[in-house]
Specification:
This protein has 145 residues and is mostly helical. The chain has one domain (2-144). Helices cover 96% and strands 0% of the residues. It contains three helices and no strands. The protein has helices at 2-71, 73-89, 93-144. Helix 1 packs antiparallel against helix 3 (93-144). It is elongated and about 110 Å long. Keywords: Coiled coil. Residues 5-113 form a coiled coil.
Length: 145
């Protein structure tokens, strides 16, 4: 009989240890979920701020365009004068080619930088979304067990 009690006590201790371990894992998962949620919310907040800033910039540019359309010919004349001045500074076709090549290279660099930024944003968004989903699945699995 004493052997049975000892065996039961050992079984109870083992179960208590397992329960403590599962509780620790659950707490770790909750902490991980909170961390990922915070990261996701930070990313979302940054995107909302960027969107708002871009909307403000777009509105400002639209207002500027409206003003420039109102000024119309004065602006165009100034732009033509400026372009003519830049062109008159170029004395040879080689200088023109060099200038055009530099402008095209800069355009290509900016295009590549934009594509890289878009790609990195997509990867970040995917990673955060996946991690958040995985964490919620783990927490949901533990809470239903």
């Amino acid at each position: 009989m004493a052997h049975d009690v000892t065996q039961w006590l050992a079984e109870i201790r083992t179960l208590q240890q397992q329960l403590a371990q599962v509780r620790q894992e659950r707490d770790d998962a909750y902490a991980s979920a909170a961390t990922w949620r915070r990261l996701y919310e930070t990313e979302a907040r940054q995107r909302r701020q960027d969107t708002q800033a871009l909307r403000s910039q777009l509105q400002s540019l639209q207002e500027t365009l409206t003003q420039l359309n109102g000024q119309g010919t004065d602006f165009l004349e100034h732009a033509v004068d400026l372009s003519q001045q830049q062109i008159s500074d170029i004395n040879t076709i080689d200088e023109l080619r060099s200038h055009l090549t530099a402008v095209l290279q800069r355009c290509q660099q900016l295009r590549q930088a934009l594509e890289c930024e878009r790609h990195q944003h997509g990867q970040t968004r995917q990673a955060l979304t996946t991690a958040l989903g995985d964490t919620f699945d783990r927490v949901k699995g533990w809470s239903s067990s």
